Amino acid sequence: MEYLENRELSWLKFNKRVLEEASDKNNPLLERLSFSAIYQSNLDEFFMVRVGSITDDEKSGRNKKDSKSGMNSSQQLDAIFTAVRRLQPVVEDTYRKTMSELSAYGFEHVSFENATKDEQIFLELYFKREIKPFISGLVVNNSLPFPFLKNKELYAVVQLNAKKGVSIGIVPISHDQNERVIPLGAGGKRFILEEEVVLHFAHLLFKGYKVLDRAIIRVTRNADIMVSGKGSDFRDRMEELVDKRKKLAPVRLEISDDFSREALDYICKKLKIKNVRVFTSRIPLDLSYLFQLQELDENPKLHYVQRLPRKPAILADNRSVFSQVKQKDMILSYPFESMNMSFIRLLQECAIDPKVTSIKITLYRLAKGSKVIDTLCTASENGKEVLVMIELRARFDESNNIEWSKVLQKAGVKVIYGIKDYKTHSKLLLIKRKSTGNNYDYLTQIGTGNYNEKTSTLYTDLMFLTTNKEIAQDAEKVFECLQKGTFVEETNKLLVAPLCLRNKILAMMDEQINISRNGGQGYIGAKINALCDGTIIKKLAEASQAGVKIELVVRGICCLIPDVAGYTENITVRSIVGRFLEHSRIYIFGDEKTEQKIYIGSADYMSRNTIRRVEVATPIENEKLKKRLWDMFRTLMSDNVKARIMQNDGTYIHAVPDENAEIINAQEFFYEQAYKNIEDKQNRQEQLRTNRENSAKKKTTPKKRKTIEKN
Questions:
Q1: For 163-240, where are the E strands, in sequence order?
Q2: CB 3.0 to 4.6 Å from 459: which of 21, 161, 239, 583, for a disulfide?
C-alpha cells in the first residue's frame, strides 16, 4: 500500500533523528556527545528485541510477511542491516567532530600511539599493576573450546600464529564504568579507554605466541523473551527466564577495526553468526562512557541551561493534595512540574492519613531507590489495604521489579502479577478515603508515564487527578479484573484495553468522519510515541479521504505516510526529538470550535498496546483542562526548532520557521511556562499579604495608631 511504511525501517529513521541531535550546532557540545551515546543505546536495544524477534521468526521457517511492506523476515533483516551500515559513517564522523571541537576545552581521547612518551610509560605500568592481575587471556583453536561471550561486553581478540588452522586469543575486559576511562591529564578530560590499553598490551598475556592481528569485539544477544501465565510460581519462572536471556543466541557482532578475515570467519563460525551480521566501527564500540564526560567540566557553554522541575502552581502547601483534588480536577505535566512535590506528596500524605483505607496501583517501571515503593510499604505498615499490580515482564526491568515485589510482600502489601499473556502497562492509582458518615471519597489518577522519579525529570508526561465517582468505578473494575485474571468488558468513562479502547477510539474517529461527510469540518489529533496499529491506520486513511483534518505528533515509529494522493493527503505527521524524551499520549477528536473530546492515557497506537495489553486512558472533561491540553498540542504543532515533518516519501525534514515567525521550542516553552506560573503565584500571594496589611492599617484609627507608635 502506497501510504504504509515498514515498522523496523521507520524506527531506524527515528534513531537517525536522535543522531541528528548529536550534530546539531544549537546543542551544547557535551550534550551532543550524550545523543551519540543514546543513539547507540537505542540501537543495542533494537537489535536485542526487534532484530532478535525477526531472527527467531526467520529461523523457525515461518518467515512471515510484514503486513505493511510485504517483506518477509529475511528481507526485513537485509533492509535493517543495510540501513544501519549506511548510518555508521555518520555516527563515526559525528563523534570525531564533536571530540575535535571539545579539544578547545581540554578534552582529548588519546590513542596509545599518539600518547606522549611519559604517558606510554605510565600506561605500561598501569596495565601491569592495575589491569593485568585481574584479567587473563584464553587461547582458542580447534582443540580448545570457544568461551561464552557476554551480551554487550567488550573483549580484546588477537590472532595468534598457528602451525595448523586458526588460533585466536580472547581477553575479557570486565571493568567498572568509572575505571574504564583512564585519565592522563587536564582533570581527566585527556583520557584513554581501558580496552585500548588492554588491546595494546594483549601480547603480554600470550607468551610463547606471536600476535598477528588484534581488535576489540562486542556481541549483541537476542533478548526477546516472553513468559506466559501467572500464579504463585510466576515470579520464580520470570527469574529463571531473565537468567536464560543472558545466554540467548548472538544477533550482531561488532568489531573495532579491520581484522584478519581468516580469524573473523573463525569467530563467526564459533558464534554461529553470519558475516552479514558483522559491523565494523572505527570509534569505541561502547559509547556509554560519554555520559561521564559531562561531569568533568561545568562550563555552562558545554551544557544545557539548567532546568529543575517546579512546584505545581495549582497546588497549595497548606492543604492536602486529596482535599485540593476533591475541589477540582488537576493535570500535572512532567518534567516541567515536580513529581516529588505532587504525586509523591499525595502518596506520602495518604500513607499516614487515618481516613485513607486503601491504595491500589499498577506499576511498570520504577526508579532504583523508589519513593513510591517506600510509601506503599509505609501505608501497608500503617494498616491500610494496599494492592499493587507489578508487571514483572517490563522488558529490561524484570529483575528490578522482581526485587521490588519481594520488598512489597515483606511489608504486607498484596502483590499481583496481572493477566496471562497480557502485560499491564496502565498507569493507574485508586485511593479510597472515609468521608462523612458511612460514605467514602475516591481519588483516581491516570497517567501517561511511569511512577518513576528519575524519568519524570527526563520524559515529558501527563498525570490526571480526579475524584469523579464514575471514573473511580471504572478504575475499580480494572483492579477487580486484574485480580481475577479477566478483562474489563464495558466502561462508562475510561478507555481500557484490550477490549474497550481501540473500538471506542475507532468510534470517535467515525464521528469525525460523519461530520465531514455531512458538510462539517471533522478533526482528529494525536500525540503518541508510535503509530503502527493497522486497523487505526486504515481508519485514519479513511478519515483523510472523507476530508477530516488530521494532525499527528509521533515521536518514533510511524507506519503511516502522510500526504499520499488519494489516501492520506489530509494528514500531517510531526516528530519532536529534543532535550527531553516525548512520552505523553493525547487523543483529540474535534477541534476547539466543536464538541471536542480529549483523552490522555498510557497506550500508543500500536496493536501491542491497543489489543494485547492492559492500558487505560481517561477523558478530560473540565473545560479549563481541555483548553490547557489543546494549547499544549497547538504548541507542539508550532514547534519549529526540534520538530521534523514527515514527507510523502517517508523522509523527514526539519520544520523551518516562516520569515518573521516566532521561534518555538515546545519543551523550552513549557518549562518557561512552569517557571512563570509559580512566579505569578508567588506574586499573587505577596500582593494578597500586602493588601491584608494595608487593610489592617486602614482599620486602625489615627488615635489607636498614635498609641501603638508611642508604645
A1: 167-172, 181-185, 190-193, 211-221
A2: 583
